[in-house]
Amino acid sequence: MTLTTGASAYSNLPLEIDAAEEKLTEVVERYAPLVKRIAHHLLLRMPASVQVDDLIQSGMIGLLEAARKYDVSKGASFETYAGIRIRGSMLDEVRKGDWAPRSVHRKSRKVAEAIKAIEARTGKDAKDGDIAQELDIDLNSYYAILQDASGSRLFSFDDIMEGDDSAIELAAGELQGPCDGLQRSTFKEHLGRAIDGLPDREKLVLALYYDEELNLKEIGEVIGVSESRVSQIHSQAAMRLKTRLSDWK
Predict the structure, then answer these.
(1) Dist CA 29 CA 160 (whole Å)
(2) pLDDT, position 181
(3) Tens digit of pLDDT for each residue in 43-82?
(4) In a domain, 8, yes or no
(5) What is the rounded CA–CA span in Å between residue 246 and residue 114?
(6) Does residue 47 come out as left (phi exceeding 0), alpha (psi in the -120 to 50 range) or beta?
(7) How many domains does the chain fold into?
(8) CATH number, domain with residue 226
């Protein structure tokens, strides 16, 4: 009797697998345009080395994961949940392909340390010339460091609350308890204060880039500087924020 029951249970398995595969196929066909739209939107904000086909491929993986893990009882719509997973999957792929050599990361850390030291000593925003002097280099060399570091910083703020399962769950309303919501809220409050305290030009660049979703070239046209200079300003803002949030727990 036990063997008969077991065989009967397993006889339905192929039908269940076929139904699941059919559902995934329907999801892929329906939401493939969403993947492409997110990929092309992100591409405008990525370095030239990033290819749209790579973003789309990783986004499709995120879409399939969303289809498998989505829980309608959590309240978020599937498109909202899938969009977060798709975008997070694309950013994960770009992180894995980090093109910046170790020397760039090392110099970036030195810049961040210099900014922190100057601002702790003076109580004022560290200016470009002050930072270069602290590093014992000329201004052009300092700008070259910012330019080299800019590629690995272009999506750094997008990564703050996205790209991993815990962040996706938070965004989809799947809080595990009051402490998670409090932590998220507290961090956003600290980040908001840190951004408000940035020099006006850096704050404007971040607002145009993240709030208005302009690309670097468009921001340059708005504030009257070159695209490369916008990239440098963005990179410096990222480093300044990193120093100001380094003690956050």
Answers:
(1) 30
(2) 55
(3) 776 766 778 898 999 999 999 988 888 877 777 788 888 9
(4) no
(5) 14
(6) beta
(7) 1
(8) 1.20.140.160
